[in-house]
Amino acid sequence: MTDRERILAAIRGQRPDRLPWVPRLEFWHRARLRQGTLPADLRSLSLMEIADRLGVGCYSVIPDFTACASETDMLDRALGIFNLPVLPYQVTLEDVERRVLRRGRETVIEYHTPVGSIRTATVFTDEMLDGGASISWITEHAIRQPCDFETVAYIFSHLRVEPHLDGYLARRREIGDRGIVIGYTSGTACPMQHIMKELMPLDQFFYALHDTPAAVERLAEQIQPFFQRIQDIAADSPAEVVLLGGNYDDSITYPPFFEKHILPALRDYAELLHRKGKYLMTHTDGENRKLLPLYRAAGFDIADSLCPYPMTRCKLEEIREAFADRITIWGGIPSILLCPDSASEADFRRFIDELVERYGRASHFILGVSDMVTADAEWDRLSYITDRVARIQPE
């Protein structure tokens, strides 16, 4: 089977000839290039060629936010709005004046509208770049005072969102049988999570949700048409799998919040995609134990970047039992196990050997590193996983 066939078989609940193995290498690759520590025989290779050399599927789930077609693609990052070529849609701001100031690695943007103005700022630090980060840190959020709600609502009410499949289709041709290209909609599942994650500092969001819930809920309602539009475009795209939402944690997107705001959004979108013969993926990369029962109720098909113990409290077998062969795990290897300063060779090999022995012929499992292969990961440990997976014998 090809890697593409293995991935799709696992999602459909079939048993591939062996475990699909698709690590996210881009952070490791960027960091090693910056540090000059990429193995000598890999320095002339592209990331896809490195994946081929390693013998793994080609990862194309969370977009590479550095893969821009122009310098304007990430200008609206602090609004949670992106225009990367691989996305199935394109967003244009209308009747909004944008003033951009770049100061080294910092980008400051002023948005001027008929109802008011806001200012955002983002930055890349040396530490972020050394770690291979692809997306900037928000240092000034869009909403910092009550009057900003109206301005942000105006901006989201004046977005033109259109299908834009050229970049997505080009990526599919590039990947070929090496994997699948996920149709990415948004890293937030619903407008309320979008406000929490992108538009306000976290503490201020919860203060506002407690003190002025009507204002926060009204903004969420005004952002909803944007979410509906990008979801409809992705649902009508050629993507077999579509991603909506992520970065859940049972202490931040705590169960009552998840159940009220996020679960209905995932459930409704899953139902729409299922009617079209497609699958819904969401990015479950935090502490998940208290959310596991809600994940099943949400009806999504793939839990991306799922990270078990020892990086989180949940054992892998606990997660598999909770998913009951209804949700596919994409992940399963804690990134610290690849790093010699965090895990011994013996502990690393024991974890991988036990995982492959137990799940090497399982359905609903795509092996990956959660959340990504980090800068200090060892190539030899990646190769060990490849070799161990290759020895799996079909039933």
Record keyword descriptors for this entry.
TIM Barrel; six-stranded parallel β-sheet
Shape: globular
> H/E series, N to C?
HHHEEEEHEHEHEHHHEHEHEHEHEH
CATH topology: TIM Barrel
Number of structural domains: 1
State the separation between the terminal residues, measured CA to CA: 14 Å
> What is the top-level CATH class?
Alpha Beta
Q: Which percent range describes the beta-strand content? A: 15-25%
Strand order of the largest sheet: 7-8-9-10-11-12
User: Helical segment tally?
Assistant: 14
Task: Please tell me about this protein's structure.
40% of the residues lie in helices and 18% in strands. With 395 residues, the protein is α/β, with parallel strands linked by helices. The protein has a single domain (3-91, 162-390), classed as Alpha-Beta Barrel (TIM Barrel), CATH 3.20.20. It is globular. It has helices spanning 3-11, 26-35, 47-54, 126-130, 148-157, 166-175, 191-199, 202-211, 213-235, 255-275, 292-298, 316-323, 345-359, 379-390, and strands at 89-93, 97-103, 106-113, 116-123, 137-140, 159-163, 183-186, 241-246, 279-283, 302-306, 328-334, 365-370. It contains 14 helices and 12 strands. Helix 7 (191-199) packs across helix 9 and helix 10 runs parallel beside helix 11 (292-298). Strand 2 (97-103) and strand 3 (106-113) form a beta hairpin. The chain starts with a helix and ends in a 5-residue tail after the last helix. The strands form 3 sheets. A 6-stranded parallel sheet has the order 7-8-9-10-11-12. Strands 2-3-4-5 form a 4-stranded antiparallel sheet, with helices on one face.
